[in-house]
Amino acid sequence: MLYHAFEMQKSWLAGASALATAGAQVMQHPANPLGYFGGSPAFASALEVFAHAAAPRGKPRFDLYDTVVDGETVRVTEAVEARKPFGQLKHFKHKGTKDAPKLLIVAPMSGHYATLLRGTVERMLPGHDVWITDWRDARNVPLEDGHFDLDDYIDYIIGWLEHIGPGAHMLAVCQPSVPSYAAAAIMAAAKHKCRPRTLTMMGGPIDTRKAPTAVNQHATTRPYAWFQENVIATVPAYYPGAGRRVYPGFLQLAGFMSMNLGNHMTSHWEMFKHLVDGDDESADKTKEFYDEYRAVCDMTAEFYLQTVDAVFQRHLLPKGELLHRGKPVDLNAIEDIALLAIEGERDDISGIGQTKAALTLAKSLPAAKKKYLMAKGVGHYGIFNGRKWREEIAPVVEAWICGNGG
């Protein structure tokens, strides 16, 4: 009933959003004399804020059409190079990619689409041949396509590295740090020719026992059975994945919004003031952020529950107890994959030390192949998006790739 209740609410809000949009347009129309008097501008702005907040959202697009390489603006072509039931491998091709380092960006499967990393992709495009994992909304995957869990996630990463070919580099943002690290170890143990030359992990929950955040505490203060009974829902009949058990994206979004509710309310208040003042450009920046932030997708129940159990409750990877297809994942097998761990000083999702732990766990890797970056004054989102990512963090990633096989 949880999913059905949400769908009913979404339908009602979609109608209310449409009415609010129409009302705002009438109030703001130049031919409407009432729009210039009293509280009409404020009322129209309030309607616009509500309409934007209540509007339904689908999967966003990357909309990356060009980049600048050596001072020249070149066209970027987005292509799907490989498809699997629960995701696809996207490739951003442009004139400068022929001899550029190959970079696989592993996007998180945590309720948002891969486009959340649009800023990450955009910044790395000029100097790299960029690929990204584009995960599929689980509610759109038919039951006959099978299940998807942490083992499958690791297999997808390995398969896509094989597709890209030898010499690639890998960058994992947040949640995929764990499966990416495991995939690197498995490929290293097998001396796989397509193992990545470098692995950069950004704000990832490698060892959540260190500086636990509210997210970590939420996962550990409740038993595994609670998550099974309270946050797993069945996809309704009118979606392709009807009958599939999932962790709904709307629950993940509600959790993230509630963590920083005051900040979100302030952002909307500022957007309202910008609209009243006629500062549409500033208001549009807030709208663009929430257009992406509120676009969410579902995860399969088995992947979500296994992640809660293995990563947040039993900490299997840092304990050396994580299994992949029944075989131990040996982090000591990593001997030549350069590791870069990046953390944000103000990260309230992955605490300080959780990602850095990856460097200690790779005991066979020489110290020269390990690097740590603490991004000052940066929160979780700022690690991979925004000015500090572009100007302070990305140059370190680029230098690390260049210094380790380029």
Structural class: alpha/beta
Report the sheet-strand fraction.
15-25%
CA-based gyration radius: 22 Å
**For the terminal residues, how far apart are their CA atoms?**
52 Å
CA-based shape: globular
Order of the strands making up the biggest sheet: 3-4-6-5-7-8-14-15
Query: Helices and strands, in N-to-C order?
Result: HHEEEEEHEHEHEHHEEHHHEHHEEEHEH
Uncertain stretches of 5 or more adjacent residues:
none
What share of residues is helical?
40-55%
Mean pLDDT across all residues, rounded?
89
Summarize this entry quickly.
The chain has 406 residues and is of the alpha/beta class.
Notes on the structure:
- With about 400 residues, this protein is of the alpha/beta class.
- It contains 14 helices and 15 strands.
- The protein has helices at about 1-30, 40-55, 120-125, 150-165, 175-190, 215-220, 225-230, 250-260, 260-275, 280-295, 300-315, 315-320, 355-360, 385-405; strands spanning about 65-70, 70-75, 75-85, 85-95, 100-105, 130-135, 170-175, 200, 235, 245, 300, 325, 325-330, 340-345, 370-375.
- The strands form 4 sheets. An 8-stranded mixed beta sheet has the order 3-4-6-5-7-8-14-15, with helices on both faces. A 3-stranded antiparallel beta sheet has the order 9-10-11.
- Helix 1 (about 1-30) packs antiparallel against helix 2 (about 40-55) and helix 4 packs across helix 5 (about 175-190).
- The longest helix is centred in the N-terminal third of the chain and has 27 residues, at about 1-30.
- The radius of gyration is 22 Å and the shape is globular.
- It starts with a helix and ends with a helix.
- The model has no long low-confidence stretch (mean pLDDT about 90).
